[in-house]
Amino acid sequence: MVMDELHRQSKWLDQNLRDMEVKVKSMLKLIEEDVDSLAKRAEMFYKERHERGVLHGSHSIG
Fold this sequence. Notes:
- This protein is mostly helical.
- 97% of the residues lie in helices and 0% in strands.
- It has 1 helix and no strands.
- The longest helix has 60 residues, at 2-61.
């Protein structure tokens, strides 16, 4: 009887750990996508900022 209870708890724990692993992997994927997106947006922002500075600088010279 005790062994049955331990077996049942073990199966429950195993399933919960598997579920948590799936959720953690999903969250990590979302975080990585957000980091990539943020890096791309920052790169575009600084590139556009530089281009605006170059354009602004060329207008002030002439």
